[in-house]
Amino acid sequence: MRGLWLIGAAATLFAGGAAQAQSVESGVPRGALAVAAIERGDLDRAETLLRRSALDSADPARLINLGYVYQRQGRRAEAVAAWRAALDAPRHRWIETMSGREVRTDDLAREILARHEAVIASR
């Protein structure tokens, strides 16, 4: 069985879905992915947690959630940069999103970037 990390709401970023209540991070130090702060909508706290995270600065799960926070704050260029860095990360892993989907971090970053580009193109 592969190890799964719980990642923030990135999977619902462009789909508009609601995150499940009371998610917990697993496989990482508590708060390292700022899941609870993201769920509460406390984006400033989420950004602080993600910037201070015990995880490697190039960790793709951390970068995906940081991109989500930036997107929600209207910081689109920084969001795209975080998602591109996640895609380019040297190590990827299987994670479980808050919606229960199992996906590799590189595949999720690629999907998020494609959705972002589709939204921009439709404007």
Strand tally is: 3
Order of helices and strands: EHHHHEEH
Strand content: 5-15%
Distance between the termini: 42 Å
Based on secondary structure, the structural category is mainly alpha
Largest sheet: 3 strands, mixed
Shape: globular
Number of helices: 5
Would you identify the CATH architecture?
Answer: Alpha Horseshoe
* Model regions low in confidence, pLDDT < 50 over at least 5 residues: 11-22
CATH superfamily: Tetratricopeptide repeat domain
Fraction of residues in helix: 40-55%
Strand order of the largest sheet: 1-2-3
The CATH class assignment is: Mainly Alpha
Radius of gyration: 13 Å
Structural domain tally:
1
CATH fold call: Serine Threonine Protein Phosphatase 5, Tetratricopeptide repeat
Mean pLDDT: 83
